[in-house]
Specification:
Elements lengths: L12 E9 L5 E9 L8 E6 L4 E6 L7 E12 L6 E7 L16 E3 L2 E3 L9 E4 L8 E2 L7 E6 L9 E2 L7 E2 L4 E4 L2 E2 L6 E7 L5 E3 L4 E4 L5 E10 L7 E11 L4 E5 L19 E4 L8 E2 L3 E4 L5 E8 L6 E7 L8 E5 L1
């Protein structure tokens, strides 16, 4: 854990560290950094050659509020033995984590990777820049808590990612069952709910199954996390949402029949036809016009029901009206 979890606000910065490998045959598949709660906004992870050539770049997604964050490159980078590289990330607000004098007398060794101490060149590098830039400045041998994701066999194992990017909507009181999917990494996978909440009545299993019977109408936003079985384990996250729609149980008309444009008891036809009064029993969910006109001599009228949560926002209902018995009231029951 960093001694300084939050160094405070700064201008836009690129923060990184130098490293090398003692053997070839491995791949840098992503970048990690330790995040403070105030280090908000967009973050971009970068891998550079020692001369400043950008080798790979990716924008972090699905970040947690704080702690270690990881992004995987779309194309892993094969590294060469005994060659220096720079791993870095860009932040717009500062609030980075750091340890001063961390690389002053010693580095970090986790074979085949090595982070050198200050010597031929100082470690713990940074640059003030509004966008990603090669960091070359140093200050007090600081460790900015940037790391790389390394794999030996990336040719056969891709970086872990969640391939499910959206979920179908559910219906209140109706069974729901959907499977989450991931690619890359090492199977088997373990799934968990990282943030947010599932719709009431639904659960997520460790095998990636969202199931149950939703009980409440509305939208739920949440983020899932998948962890593979590799050593070290990889993780990936994905933001998802499920909308639970209302179930329409019935449409009731009272009275059930009206003759358009004709008064009761043999009265002459009205000019322009009869007016039928309409109403919704749940205006928060569905609304109808205040009335519909049945043309003179017609036996039906057309009106529109507008719903607030159904994906298809309107549905047209055709109402048969065959005998006028006063005022017709449409009750929309959910």
């Amino acid at each position: 854990m960093p001694l300084i979890a939050d160094a405070g606000p700064f201008s836009s910065l690129e923060l990184g560290m130098q490293f090398w490998a003692d053997s070839s045959g491995g791949y840098i598949t992503g970048i990690r950094f330790y995040k403070s709660a105030s280090n908000t906004g967009v973050h971009v992870g970068n891998l550079w050659s020692s001369s400043g050539t950008l080798l790979a770049s990716a924008t972090f997604t699905g970040e947690t509020a704080s702690g270690w964050q990881q992004v995987n490159f779309s194309n892993p980078v094969a590294i060469t033995a005994n060659t220096r590289y720079v791993a870095s990330y860009h932040t717009d607000v500062g609030h980075f984590s750091a340890d001063q004098n961390y690389f002053a007398t010693s580095g970090v060794d986790n074979a085949p990777l090595h982070v050198p101490a200050d010597g031929g060149s100082a470690n713990g590098v940074y640059a003030y820049a509004s966008t990603s830039a090669f960091p070359t400045n140093t200050y007090n041998s600081m460790n900015f808590w940037v790391d790389v994701v390394f794999n030996f066999n990336v040719g056969s194992t891709l970086p872990l990612s969640v391939s499910t990017t959206s979920l179908p909507n559910g219906t209140q009181s109706a069974p729901y069952n959907q499977s989450l999917a991931a690619v890359g990494g090492t199977t088997p996978y373990t799934w968990s709910l990282l943030s947010g909440t599932l719709p009431s009545g639904l659960t997520l299993s460790t095998s990636g199954q969202i199931s149950g019977t939703p009980t409440t109408v509305g939208a739920s936003n949440f983020t899932v996390q998948v962890t593979d079985s590799g050593a070290p384990a990889q993780t990936a996250t994905q933001a998802l949402s499920i909308i639970v729609e209302p179930i329409v149980s019935s449409l009731a008309l009272n009275p059930t029949s009206v003759v358009g444009g004709v008064h009761g008891h043999g009265d002459p036809e009205r000019a322009g036809g009869d007016q039928v009064t309409l109403s919704s029993s749940n205006t928060a969910v569905a609304s109808v016009p205040s009335s519909a006109t049945v043309p003179a001599g017609a036996t039906s009228a057309t009106f529109t029901v507008t719903t607030s949560l159904v994906l298809l926002s309107t549905s047209v209902n055709r109402l048969p009206l065959t005998e006028r018995l006063g005022t017709a009231i449409l009750a929309v029951i959910f």
